[in-house]
Amino acid sequence: MQNKSWKPWAMMAPSLSAVFLLLVIPVCFIVVYSFWLRAPTGADIPAFQFGNYAKFFEDFFYPSILIRTIRVALETVALCLVMGYIPAYFFYRSETRHKSLLLLLIMLPFWISFIIRTLSWINILGETGLINHLLLKFGILNEPLSLLYNEGAVLLGLIQYLLPFMILNVYVSLEGIDKSLLEAARSLGCTEWQAFREVTLPLSLPGVSAGCLLVFVLTAGTYLPPMILGGPGNDMIANLIFKRVIGTLDWPFGSAISVLLLALLGVIVFTYNRYLGINQVFKSLSS
Amino acid sequence: MSEITKNTEGSSAAPAAEDASAPHMPPVKPPMVQFKGILKKFGKVLAVEKTDLDIEEGSLVTLLGPSGCGKTTLLRMVAGLETPTEGDIFIKGKRINDVPIHQRNLGMIFQNYALFPHKSIYDNVAFGLKYRKIPKEEIREKVLRALEMVRLPGVEKRMPGQLSGGQQQRIALARAIVIEPDVLLMDEPLSALDENLREDMRREIDNLQQMLGVTTIFVTHDQREALSMSDKIVVMKNGKKQQEGVPEEVYNRPANHFVADFLGHSNFTSAVVQGREGNFVKVELETGNILLADAPGDWKEGEEVEVVVRAQRFEAMLQEEFSPDGQTNYFEGKIRDRSYMGGEVSYFIDMAGGKEVHVISMMRSRIYGIGNDVVVQVAPEHCHLLPLE
What we know:
By secondary structure, chain A is mostly helical. Helices cover 75% and strands 1% of the residues of chain A. In chain A, strands 1-2 form a two-stranded antiparallel sheet. In chain A, helix 3 packs across helix 7 (151-175). The longest helix of chain A is centred in the N-terminal third of the chain and has 33 residues, at 61-93. Chain A is globular. Chain B is α+β, with helices and mostly antiparallel strands. Chain B has nine helices and 20 strands. The longest helix of chain B is centred in the first third of the chain and has 19 residues, at 2-20. At the A-B interface, helix 8, helix 9 and helix 13 of A face strand 6 of B.
């Protein structure tokens, strides 16, 4: 009986130690760094003071980037939701025997490096890119459109990165819906659309909710699409951290921003889980 | 309850009059559900062969057969969940092939209950009423009455997940009857339940069906369910109707080997017709024994037939206690094996001619042991002849 208590721990030990060594300890370092002082010489002096945090809120510049990050993340979530639910629903209703192949297609982009995928948009959206080239060639425009280096391009880059996550989450949730529920709804007088609204949509919400959370968190922490596809005004919080740490080597301030971002996302995830009650929905479905 | 019954009657009167005008219809009330030349293919697979079937108003008809026999497909075609490849389906004399599911006014019960897990019991039961433009107070009244009818009053605020399987199926029943459907369709409604619960639920469905007088099509693979509830049983195999009749008829006068084998425990042996003897047909069994069978119809001398005897119709007794009388068929044998099943005993008896006979004997006095020499007898009325397939 006694060995039962340590067995689960033994089995989790490799992953737990990896998480501890590679995630928890570095995060602790970051937290410690965030209190250090940055001397005018560029050296970091161990200290315990809140100057780095105060600097973030000194004027509106830094908080505005944080607010922009949240806004862009919400926009990405909304767009991914609309663009992801429809294909997920199509897969779910599809009668084809090659469903796994369809899902493989969704995973296909992951086989190419994220950076390459993001960079390739330059060839499509740039001034000499595909779209402008065609528009000019067919005489629709006289001057190329500036499609790059704005928020739209950033959103595009984010969506092409995050859409598969949304589709897969929604699909899994849809696939779990017992089809006889739809038949029951139909036999009770629902049209197909009403049955979707009454049964399919509410029962797919756990997947929608998980997909939204995932997309939000990933967007809030990403820096590549804004860096490659965005202009100077499209920086997000992760770009700011990147610039502080890599650009100006200001580790204490970069760490402080990281801690703030971590805290903010933590609060969001916690509240989301608590009030949207993902677990509750799952419970009612599994019974 | 009274109101639902009234409405069912009231709503069925009108279409009957409508059909009187149709020239090809006899002037009698048409059946509630009618299959005419129904055939269903899934791709190249024939799921249901050309089938005609009438289901009378107020009756409970069971579609009985092993899995894959087409019984569920037949049911789903009534519901509108499958489209017949050929043929027409009529409800109350009206062709419904092209009527979409949600306009058919049918109550459907599923094997897995199919309650909406995200809706309260109240909302589940009220679901169909909501789409029938009924005022809120009336919905409330009907829902509460339906819950009382399935003997689950007071659960309306709970969620389906909080109820047991049997309770969930009763809610599903309430949800189906509350809309006062023309036809109640039940797709193996009892097979997900425990053995003990199944019997209770079966009686409940039976009572409710009779009380409401709602026409019901009941799909099952369980012969006991079929025999105990049905006004009519339709036995199916490989998409083909094998026999149709009241339970007694299907059980006692099976139309073919399959039906005899599927319902109850039957003994089969091949034989050759020798002629008539009084009211009975005399046949020679493959073991050489002579047997009298009560077989109406025309049997020619020399015709090869199959003799069917239910295991329960045989009677076994010790050889020294046996004295032959009149026309009873009897054979000698030795008990090879037996199994005790509580209320009855199953004997497997090696007959003189090398054939094994299965006898199920209600325990009246005692149980015979393995190795006992016995006589097995059966009255001619319980011996049936089938043409050899």
